[in-house]
Amino acid sequence: MDKIENKIKELLEYIGEDVNREGLKDTPVRVAKMYKEIFRGYDITTKPKIAIFDNSKDGIKYDQVIYDSGYFFSHCEHHTVPFFGEYHFAYIPNKKIVGLSKVARIVDWHSAKLQIQERLVKDIVDDFEKVLNPNAIGLVMKGRHLCKEMRGVKKFNGAMITSDMRGAFRNKPEARAEFFRLMKI
User: Fold this and answer.
1) Structural domain that includes position 18
2) What are the C-alpha distances in Å from 97 to residues 54, 125, 135, 177?
3) Do 62 and 118 fall within a single domain?
């Protein structure tokens, strides 16, 4: 850990800070610990297992849209500043259904890396498609990128929307429309 702490001290000195002033004395240690936490997605041992269940095991065969939404936080791989926003995930099951908390856990795990939003969407959908083999699967992410808001063009509160639609969400307009109605778009 000493090596990374020294690099953080060098970075603080580079931006003009006095690393010996009272408020910064423990900052290198805190930043090193924070990096481990917010970039935990690089540690494959922390990847959540996607719990799946047989569709109809409990006597109900579900063949309609299953929808989940929530928030995500990530970091831009080009400038290492945060981007964050909301996600909208849906699928139409085939033979398997997923434990609902697993959607948020997989979104969080993939978000805990330096990313571009386009790859983030694709990686999440890939993971779920592999284990579910659903009739349809889709993910829409709407993100605010601080690399656009606090530097560069400095355009505040804009949004980047990316999506990955597969199966019936891609091929059947009525299925896609139902997903979007659930998103309240």
Assistant:
1) 2-38
2) 6, 14, 11, 22
3) yes
Reported residue count of the chain is 185
- Model pLDDT for residues 23-53, shown as the tens digit of each residue: 999 999 999 999 999 999 999 999 999 999 9
Residue 23 lies in a domain: yes
Q: Report how many domains make up the chain.
A: 2
How far, in Å, CA of 28 to CA of 38, rounded? 15
Beta bridge partners of 144: 84
pLDDT digits (tens, 9 = 90+) for 60-104: 899 999 999 999 999 999 999 999 999 999 999 999 999 989 999
Domain-embedded: residue 43: no
Q: Catalogue the E-assigned strands of the chain.
A: 52-54, 66-76, 82-92, 96-98, 114-115, 136-145, 160-167
b/e map of 10-40 (b: 16 or more CB within 10 Å)?
eebeeeeeeeeeeeeeebbeebbeeeeeeee
Q: What is residue 10's three-state secondary structure?
A: helix
pTM over 0.90: yes
